[in-house]
Write a structure and sequence with these properties.
Blueprint: H1 2-9, H2 28-54, E1 60-62, E2 67-69, E3 83-86, E4 95-102, H3 106-118, E5 124-127, H4 144-152, E6 156-159, H5 172-190, E7 196-198, H6 206-212, E8 218-220, E9 224-225, H7 232-245, E10 248-253, H8 266-278, E11 283-285, H9 288-300, E12 302-308, E13 311-317, E14 329-334, E15 338-345, E16 348-349, E17 352-354, E18 358-363, E19 370-376
Parallel strand pairs: 4-5, 4-10, 4-11, 5-6, 7-8, 9-10
Antiparallel strand pairs: 1-2, 3-14, 12-13, 13-19, 14-18, 15-16, 15-19, 17-18
Helix pairs in contact: 5-6, 7-8
The structure holds zinc ion.
Zinc ion (ZN) binds at residues 102-103, 160, 164, 200.
């Protein structure tokens, strides 16, 4: 039992006082009492774990009176100088880019996905269920098997309408079918339900957007075309602007070496990816779903900050659908003169990166209060 408690609370419980008695199998009442006692020990230990890990008020256990004395927190930190905020982009990077590929061309699976994986990047592939596994030799398409593999590797396989029909030209009831049918096909074949949407021909109206946005993180309403006659110089300029404006750029690519609007040379695209890789400390590359979710969470989150004798308690609150918005947010504390910092959320110690000018950590916006325990340098 001591081993189980030690594992459960990641604290050594070797010294826990426990007594065990021999009991007969049919002594039911005795067994029940032991069970109740065990639960009591667990609850008691959980409280200890909470106060030890969170270090909220430096509770002191008074041996004589057997009551818990709570020390009134005294503000020994220079609170005014603490600047806590949520980074606009994950990892406090300067900008973000999602590479999106339309219409499910075969080379998205054979060329694009492996190329991106080699660089540690993941892309978004908007597909039309009706054309998958299509044997048209002039425009070969990706297969469901390939899409499932891509999805497993972390790429986003998402909804571009069942049959690539212009949604502005069909009745609303039909729009719903175009969207729902493709959702089901993608879910059945890849195991992942689409959480975003991309309009065929980029054709949309307010009512189409409203339908497509139901129960979704985001839909593609803005994009920059990446393909066709674009040159390396053009793409370099795009990256420069993205860095200057601190923006999220969503690119739209169809063909790489064939099909609609394909590159003059695929090397242009690959060289660009490599350049972005070299600037990875400044640019967040991720799927449309992930960056879209992060941005909405960052805009919607509210924080309540309380100070304690040892640091702060930051309580996040987010009025978004917890089932859709799962991105962890990056918190940034402009560095104060500290010796060490420990940050906990829900009994877990969070990975904290300390830079000369800032402290950074990722947290779950639905994960409850965050405890920041700071030890300052002695003056
Ligand atoms: Zn399309």
């Amino acid at each position: 039992m001591k081993r189980a408690l030690t594992q459960a609370f990641t604290k050594d419980r070797k010294n826990l006082v426990c007594e065990f008695h021999v009991t007969t199998k049919n002594n039911y009442l005795h067994m029940k009492l032991i069970r109740i006692a065990l639960i009591a020990v667990l609850i008691f230990n959980k409280q200890i774990a909470f106060s030890q890990q969170n270090d909220v008020y430096a509770d002191k256990y008074n041996e004589n009176s057997k009551t818990v004395v709570q020390k009134v927190p005294e503000n020994n930190l220079d609170l005014e100088k603490l600047n806590f905020h949520i980074a606009k982009f994950k990892g406090d990077k300067e900008c973000a880019i999602s590479y999106t590929f339309d219409d499910g061309l075969l080379e998205h699976a054979t060329l694009v996905a492996p190329k991106m994986e080699n660089l540690g990047f993941r892309g978004t592939f908007w597909i039309n269920g009706k054309t998958i596994d299509n044997n048209d030799s002039t425009k070969p398409r990706v297969t469901w098997k390939q899409l499932k593999k891509m999805s497993r590797k972390g790429h986003e396989v998402s909804n571009h309408g069942w049959s690539h029909t212009n949604l502005n030209r069909i009745p609303m009831a039909q729009v719903k079918i175009e969207i729902a049918k493709n959702d089901s096909a993608i879910y059945v074949n890849t195991g992942v339900y689409p959480q975003t949407f991309c309009y065929p021909f980029n054709a949309k109206s307010d009512s189409v957007i409203a339908i497509a946005s139901e129960n979704r993180i985001d839909t593609r309403t803005k994009q920059i075309s990446l393909g066709g006659k674009i040159t390396s110089e053009n793409i370099d300029r795009l990256v420069e602007e993205m860095l200057n404006n601190h923006e999220w750029v969503v690119t739209m690519t169809h063909g790489i070496s064939y099909g609609y609007d394909h590159f003059n040379s695929e090397v242009i695209f690959y060289n660009h990816l490599q350049k972005v890789k070299n600037m990875e400390d400044k640019i967040w590359v991720d799927t449309f779903r992930k960056i879209g979710a992060y941005i909405k969470e960052e805009k919607a989150i509210t924080l309540k900050i309380n100070n304690t004798s040892k640091g702060y308690i930051v309580t996040p609150s987010l009025q978004l659908d917890e089932n859709l918005f799962k991105e962890h947010l990056t918190a940034v504390i402009d560095s104060i003169d500290i010796k060490s910092v420990k940050i906990f959320q829900n009994y877990q110690k969070l990975k904290t990166i300390v830079y000369p000018d800032k402290i950074m950590f990722d947290f779950d916006p639905f994960g409850g209060a965050i405890n920041i325990v700071i030890t300052k340098n002695k003056k």
